Amino acid sequence: MSEDLSMKCGLEIHVQVDTNSKLFCQCPTNYKDVEPNTNICPVCIGHPGAKPMPPNKKAIDMAIMVAKMLGCEMVIDKDIYFQRKHYNYPDLPSGYQKTSVPIGEHGTFLGVGITEVHLEEDPGQYKPDLGTVDYNRSGTPLIEIVTDPDMKSPEEAREFLRQLLRLFRYIGNLRGEGTMRADTNISIKYNGIQGNRVEVKNVNSIRGVYKVLKYELIRQKNVLRRGGEIKLETRAFMESQMITKGMRSKETADDYRYIPDPDLQPIVLSNDWVEKVEAQMPETPMNKEKRFVEQYGIKEDDAKVLVSDLELADVFEKVVAELGNDKDGISLAVTWIRNELKRVLVYNKIEFFETNLKPEHMVELINSIKDKTISQKIGKTIIEQMVEHKGEKTPKELISEMGLTVIEDTSELEKACEEAIKNSEKAIEDYKSGNQRALNSVVGQVMKLTRGRAEPGTVVEILKKKIDG
Ligand SMILES: [Zn+2]
Questions:
Q1: DSSP per residue over 427-469, as a string?
Q2: Which PROSITE patterns match?
Q3: Domain annotation for the chain: domains and CATH numbers
Q4: CA-to-CA distance for 361 and 373, rounded, in angstroms?
Q5: d(CA 334, CA 313)
Q6: ∠ CA 7-12-16, rounded to 5°
Q7: Mind listing the pLDDT tens digit for each residue in 416-451?
Q8: Ligand 1 centroid to residue 45 C-alpha, Å
């Protein structure tokens, strides 16, 4: 029997704003670096009667920027209330979470509708296995992005989150990697039967979201196939087992008994305010990719790789500017940044920003190759060393320390060539009988003997002279 299966997925994504102080008090937000329950005050641990301060300005600015970057319409000249969202959990001492009504609405990102963007406070951290709660995180500003249920496969949701995290890095001031959490909503239709929506709470990685969707797709399909019913419910993600488990039947908005927080003035955004934030907005990755192709005439694939990492893209532009913004300069920059540097980064599983390499380092290296101080092969070794030394040594220092400058002394080169010829009887024979390519292995030997410090062109010249006589 043929199967007709489709799914719809929507996400509620939470990301922390990198502010110094919390959303409604002046406690610091570096909760990961300090002893439990030290960054706390009556406001952020919800003492009755503790009066919150007006919301952190930077947090609001960042929420505006995220909403704008996601193409939202901003809520202008209207009261944006903070509401009390009531629920009972050990990480929430006041019994309610302060969460704003939308700051921006009706956006779109990668073809997925953005329902709304709003601001809220992070709760504390409850550790059920220890029975302890750490309130250091409580009150840290969070931006929540709610999408429409537009994603149709686990792969699409995964790509959406990857691109969103990349956007967070572009925007800056957000703690994307490491703090991103997503509530994942999924419903499926199987052979004409529509299941109810299931929510899986607090999935804290892209891989987790992907696994949840894969798992739920199969679980829900199996329930419907057996003639069962998909309940409207909230499930938990058991990360160690990569499965989901029923938690409770889904709350409706009524269960949270939302009321505007009487202790907090609503935010009112003006066009002026939004324009000021917009003036500081960075170029989006998509626009940068397009601009790279148009401005530098590089391949779309190369642009994609460079733009996937904001720092790498910046270095590329700075290096091109230094080398001369022409065909040669651009092609050198593509070779040594997009190909070679990227290869070393991927091999070491690190991002460019973790290497402490500076654009000047790349310019110095490329110039050394251009003026033939070092061979291309040595260039590759130096790049590996630059990454390994985390930018502490300049290419010039590494080249001289390792004694890797190109051999200028012809007698030294001739000696290496003679030795290589001596060791390559078969190849020389082949070459003499007309196989030009046989010479490559002899050149390779010379490179080995000189530890790559020979210029291949010069080597071929000397070899030919010696063999052809
Ligand atoms: Zn506090």
A1: HHHHHHTT-GGGHHHHHHHHHHHTTT-S-HHHHHHHHHHHHH-
A2: GATB
A3: 5-279 (no CATH), 285-401 (no CATH), 410-468 (1.10.10.410)
A4: 15
A5: 11
A6: 150
A7: 899 999 988 888 889 888 888 888 888 888 888 888
A8: 7
For the stretch 31-80, pLDDT in tens is: 989 999 999 999 999 998 899 999 999 999 999 999 999 999 999 999 99
Dist CA 148 CA 10 (whole Å):
5
Nearest-angstrom CA–CA distance, 391 and 125: 37
Closest to 263 measured CA to CA, from 37, 18, 46: 46
- pLDDT at residue 453, rounded to an integer: 81
Gap between the Cα atoms of 398 and 405, Å rounded:
10
For residue 53, how far is its CA from the centre of ligand 1 (angstroms)? 10
The SS3 assignment for 17 reads strand
Alpha helix (H) residue ranges in 133-181: 154-171, 176-179
Q: What percent of the chain has pLDDT over 70?
A: 98
Tokens of 139: 């009150």
Sign, Cα dihedral of 113, 116, 121, 126: negative
- Start-to-end Cα distance in the chain: 78
Return phi, psi of residue 67, to 5°.
-60, -45
| CA 6 – ligand 1 centroid, Å | 46
29 C-alpha vs ligand 1 centroid, how far in Å? 9
**Residue 126 Cα, ligand 1 centroid: separation in angstroms?**
17
Q: The whole model's pTM is what?
A: 0.76
Which of 262, 274, 259, 254 is closest to 78 using CA atoms? 274
